[in-house]
Amino acid sequence: MVNQVQSVDSSWQSSKADSSGASNSSGESSKESSRCSTPVLDADRSDRLRDKMRRRIESGDHWFSLEFFPPRTASGAVNLISRFDRMGSGGPLFIDITWHPAGDPGSDKETSSMMIASTAVNYCGLESILHLTCCNQTKDKITGYLGKAKHLGLKNIMALRGDPVGADWEEEEGGFNYAVDLVKHIRSEFDDYFDICVAGYPTGHPEAESYQQDLRHLKEKVDAGADFVITQLFFRAETFLKFLDDCRTIGITCPILPGIFPIQGYQSLRQLVKLSKLEVPEEITSILEPIKDNDAAIRNYGIQLAVEMCRVLLDSGKVPGLHFYTLNREVATMEVLRQLGLWTEDPRRPLPWAVSAHPKRKVEDVRPIFWASRPKSYIYRTQDWDDFPNGRWGNSSSPAFGELNDYYLFYLKSKSSKEALLQMWGEELLSEESVFEVFTFYITAQSNRCGQKVLCLPWNDEPLAQETNLLKDELEKVNRRGVLTINSQPNINGKPSTDPIVGWGPAGGYVYQKAYLEFFTSSENVTALLKVLKKYEPRVNYHIVNVHGRNLTNAPDMQPNAVTWGIFAGREIVQPTVVDPVSFMSWKDEAFALWIEQWAKLYEDESPSRMIIQYIHDNYFLVNLVDNDFPLDNCLWQVIDDMFELLDSPYRTSGSVP
After folding, report:
1. Biased-composition ranges for Low complexity (predicted)?
2. pLDDT over 80 (residue 171)
3. Which residue, 260, 419, 469, 569, shows the most beta carbons closer than 10 Å to its own?
4. For domain 49-265+295-340, which CATH number applies: 3.40.50.1110, 3.40.630.30, 3.20.20.220, 3.20.20.150?
């Protein structure tokens, strides 16, 4: 990280001071408290984007942001959301989503600009800017789009005129002709709700009469209510720095972010230059022409060129952040950011689960543990809640979880194709033991009989988490015998909050966990387990249920049980994860349905493989166990051992689940 606290352009620091509120005094750096994908407990998650920028400018912490465009297909949307998760881990301050009029951008289609931006905010926890163009749109339609964006939790708009449908610009009756009109309309209709970004052109807009006239138009947009500027791409650092100085000279004081385009291919460069009506400098084309058919060589040159230009910009002391045009690709941009020292994958988590950036969830800090590996599903099922638990889960007798009927929403479905899932989970299942093997191969990260690694399960779309790896040996042993684990955590007694595996929250704290184990298993195993559990009460709480709602628990008065908590200086104990018996019944429906929706439906109707999965769905039980004595060694493995010992005993008596 290059810090230039004394020399960073500070012209904006005072201009927005009145709207910034109190400064960050938590002890966390402004960089940590304003990462779009990792807010921390001490930072106000309601902070506006312009406030996050202000804090970073004041502290001298440089940032980066990323631009994406909506994909054309549903599978492309799934891939893009996965890319959000990967690129979000590097700590962008925000991302932005372009507006493509031909792609029905304001609709509910999974490929629309509106839905992609909403998904980034709600399900990926990314601060997001939605582009909005006023070209060929009525005032009422634009107002409708803005209202929808607000309802979906979007707080930032990039106000653009847009390109004409034909060759020439035609005025829209009852619409807007320029971006400044759109900025004024947003402020008129929505007051100060949205942070507004506008576009700047370092060499002047191609349709402007002159460079100076275009600068005046930019100032009009800022004076009308824009909060910051992102520029068109350029090829020389001095082009942007001159533009920045010229903007400051005429009184534009807000942040101005340079648009960086790492050249990634010859054709993509030609297309982008054509759209932006820019000329590529001769010193660049002379290098590109001889290697235009070598994509790897062009990408490496593009990375080198971008790194050199970005270093000049950052070293100038006038540029607080960089905005990257990714073209929905990640390799080149990530490499540039790594070489600049801006890509920072912080192993610490703000909370033990993935947060949402929706404003109404800003106070949310506790969830049931059951959705630990399916946070997007939890957010989807609670999207209509008006209030979210803060501090304690409480004793609600009926939390209103929405139904999850569409398992193929693009942000909920597996990112693996049907073919890949069959290779991992089996083209053909021979018995229940075939299913046991799949779970075991997932735990061990070893290749299955077809030489394919099992990288996901219906309940976990990612490889085993580091924390779960602490339990790997025990998990392998029990899965081999039909205790099919889908969620677990080790007991932790006062580990530092900065621990790279189990830590979360601000530095200087301590975290605690009760051992937890959740699994599917047969009714025969459950019969033995219930007998064994009697000698472990009250140390072990259990909840056992089948798909038909058969419900067995020793949870006192159906009260929630805190299984994760943290102690931090100057605040109450934070308990972000609970085992809630009432919520477990809602999770049960989803957990059982995943057997069918994501596994059984891979096979033909009435096929032996499908019937095996159907049998497990119909006859197995879902079990969760909590060891309340967290300072002691985890006893849950001994509980399972005792269950198997009873099952293996020649003297055991037969029986069924009571």
Report:
1. 1-28
2. no
3. 260
4. 3.20.20.220
